[in-house]
Design brief:
The complex is a heterodimer.
Chain A (H helix, E strand, L loop, with lengths): L1 H23 L3 H26 L8 H18 L3 H23 L4 H21 L1 H4 L5 E2 L6 E3 L2 E4 L5 H22 L2 H11 L1 H6 L4 H27 L1 E2 L1 H5 L1 H14 L6 H17 L2 H8 L8 H9 L4 H15 L3 H17 L1
Antiparallel strand pairs in A: 1-4, 2-3
Chain B lengths: L1 E12 L2 E12 L3 E5 L6 H9 L6 E6 L2 E2 L5 H7 L1 E3 L12 H9 L6 H14 L15 H14 L4 E5 L7 H16 L3 E5 L3 H7 L2 E6 L2 E6 L1 H6 L1 H8 L5
Helix pairs in contact in B: 3-4, 3-5, 4-5
Chain lengths: 349, 239
Amino acid sequence: MNKTILKSAFNILLVVGLLLIPRYVESPYALHMMILLFMSVAQGQSWNILGGYAGQHSVGHAAYFGVGAYTTMMLMHSKGVVPWVGVWAGMAAVVVVALIIGSICFRLRGPYFVLASIAVAEIMRLSAINLTPLTNGAEGILATEIPAFKIGATVVTDFVTKVPFYYIGLFLVLLTLAVTYWVQHSKLGYFFQAIREDQDAAHSLGINIALYKNIGLVISAVLTSLAGSFYGIYVGFVDPPTVLGLDVSVQIMLICIIGGMGTIWGPVLGSLILVPLSEALRSNMVTDLLVKIGMVNADSRIGIFLKENLSHAHVLLYGILVVLVILFMPDGLMGFVKKLAARRNREAV
Amino acid sequence: MAILEIKNVSKFFGGLAANSDVSFDVHEGMIMGLIGPNGAGKTTLFNCITGYYPPSKGEVIFNGRKLNGLDPDKVCMLGMVRTWQKVRPLAKLSVVDNVMVGALARTSSLKVAREMAMEQIKVVRMEHRTNFLAGGLPIGERKKLEVARALATQPKILLLDEVMGGLNPAESEEIIQLILDIKQRGLTQMVIEHDMKAIMRISDRIVVLTSGEKLTEGSPQEVVSNPDVISAYLGEPHA
């Protein structure tokens, strides 16, 4: 009882703290990092519902991310539809795409489902490249200006600073967390986990496998499309590789694998590690750090070599991290934390 | 009254007849034993009845309704549920959560499902394991968990596929008592079993399968004294 009160108090404090950050932090870079973090949590949490709870490891979530992003951007670019209307169109488009994909791919199990999900996302990417009249092909869509968000005549925000994006991102995080919490505490969560643990057993217990897999997919896809639309509007640019590429799908999945699949805090932990890490590697922070502590001379051959190559090696380092996590923490960080807690409880008894 | 009618059911895998022309009735409230040597087609017949395979020929009629081609989940909702020879616990869920999945077939409320689950956990006497992870249970308790989970779907007929397989005598005795308890509550059961002593004790009627065909059917005494059954199990006597 005391523990639950403590927990909810902590959660409320956390949310209030996050709400207050833009008041005190003005650095656009810090806000940018927070927005990237929010986007990552939202993506991971969306994937988690299908991949973590229902055990359907889709490596094609770029399809939903990209369709959401593209629909919103295309409507804004060619028809002048404001994004907060376009987002709904994006979600509707994604529901259609998800149901088509689901009805085909869910006939397959395990690795075959994974392969099919990759194939479908690749089809979407190639379509985006080749349907030039609609998507502007490989050039992508650039939105130079986002229309202000008005309710009636009052301007709520004009999207000039990063602050409105910060709040939208935070909203997305809270939304995905709330949906996950609801799934976990309802019949859906039980059915999803039963399907994950043993599909045949679940089937014999009266669970309509195809129906519940598709429900999981639609929930997951709609949330992913929201994150995609948000990405499009925030960055102001979408092209096939950045929103529909295979690495987008892999990135989304990694958040959960590293953080812990099928747990509510897994994607949060995963994002807390992956987002700063990829940023540090990309911006050559490691070389700078080595120079600063005096281990490497910036002008020496090693220093120059590192400066030139380490930022390109971020994919490699990323890969090594993933291998280590999968080898030593097969249930992700959350699984590892839980194991430690269980061990401590045992020792206490 | 026959609650389950198997009418001329055949199942072919390519050219192999796993079941051919099997017919029998299961009456309400009885325990029907299903025996036969390895590879006789017992589990295939279970799969045909519960919707995992559509029968190649013949009909399965449950409560007057033809089941052919109906998916396992629909079959379960109609009131027929099976357990698995090779147990299938939902390993990362606790015992009570496993049984709740079964109960959720009949209710959408987690609270009601939990109550229903606790009731069935009491029936199989596993209260002390309520919050254990199913994946960590020993085989005897996994088998009982299968039964509890199946019972939680509130079936009219329960199909048990070798619930005593791999158990020691004490555990088998416990399962026998459990099956008799369930019969007391008026539930119809169909039981596949290798343990002849056990099947003789619990069955009201026995069907014998060999090589996919029904060899004979009768009361336990009739079946054990049938020379065909003896030769199916022990081979032909030397002339």
